[in-house]
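Me: Here is a favour to ask of a fellow structure person. Could you put it straight underneath, so I can go through it closely?

Assistant:
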Amino acid sequence: MAAALRHRRLQAHFVDPWQDMLNGHPLLQQDLLEFRQMLESQAAYLAAERALDVDIQRLDAAYAALETTYASDDLQACIDQDVTFHQVIAEAAHNVLIGHLSASLMRVIHGHVSGNMAHLHAQAAALASVAGAAPSNLASCSRTSARGCGPSGP
């Protein structure tokens, strides 16, 4: 309990300035995207080299959950599962700084993923409306409107 409280306090002190900066400067979204690409690509590289059997099981489970979630129309569940999947990768890197930084920035990253997913969902809905057909689900909607959206996307 005490450890969880200390983690939340550390996380709040670390994340809030980032959130304030992003909220005050919406053009910094590109910087956040570049930062995520740097952090997440390094985390994936290290996870590929260092993952233990237990990490691979967690990655498989997180990916399966992500696939299942993307087959639904629950945008918030898709966002939550996407962020969870990326955190599992960060933890499988077995680099305490990458894992901690990723966890500490989870709210910022969650907000960034939420914005990306909502934008893609709205684009797909608009395209479907122009075409006269509603998309069958979020997964097909997102995957048709932007290559890379889904389990390996934002």
Observations:
- Residues 2-110 form a domain with the Four Helix Bundle (Hemerythrin (Met), subunit A) fold (CATH 1.20.120.530).
